[in-house]
Fold this protein.
Amino acid sequence: MNEVSTQQGARQLPNALSDPITRFADAVSDSFRGLEFSLTVFGKALTAGFDPRQHPAQTAVVVERLEPASLRKLAGHGMRMGRAGLDVPLLMTLQHIECSLDTFPLELLEIQQLHITVRGADHFADLSFDPANVRLQCERELKRTLFAMRHGLIAGAGREGSLVSVMRDAARNLFRTLRGVLWLKGEKSYRSESDVADELEKLLNRKFPGVRGVAAKPAFEDSEFDRFYADVDALGELIDGW
């Protein structure tokens, strides 16, 4: 495994994240006192133009053991970390990673494609994935995203702004899934949402205005829901047909 010190990792982070991530690493160290851990930043936070006000930075913490007492202690830092622009971390052990390669490859692939380990060992760079497992989860996640959007539409009961959080969650899951689809077609590197939309349209030889609209905007509006829903529905059928 490749060891990266906190100082080296912090120098590679966007300026807006350097101090919050250093403080978060200290909070993790305090919460899991005496246990070895690693802290990794991944995804959009490492791209040009990242705005923590629109997209909280995603992190993954790999620790020797996960126990309720340690998790409660870390939860005590939650509000402060949220105000600093950090999302709730993904918490896992090495065993969790090994057991998830076949069941949840997309989540691990997303980390592998673009990440910086700012403390401890890099547990993601050398992971390998079975295309059959990636393909199966892509199909499953497209269906799950569609189900979640249907549920959100009904649960919102027509309230103005009720679909914004539904679309935000759906978009995050969708683009993770579509990066998996592109990985299956040979695109192994991380691609931005706009690049994913471009490649998807080339790959499937059709336009996806709902996906492209969501990719181009940092915020969502209820009026975009129907067009986005139609694209997710179509993608499920097209990719299922492969």
The chain has eleven helices and five strands.
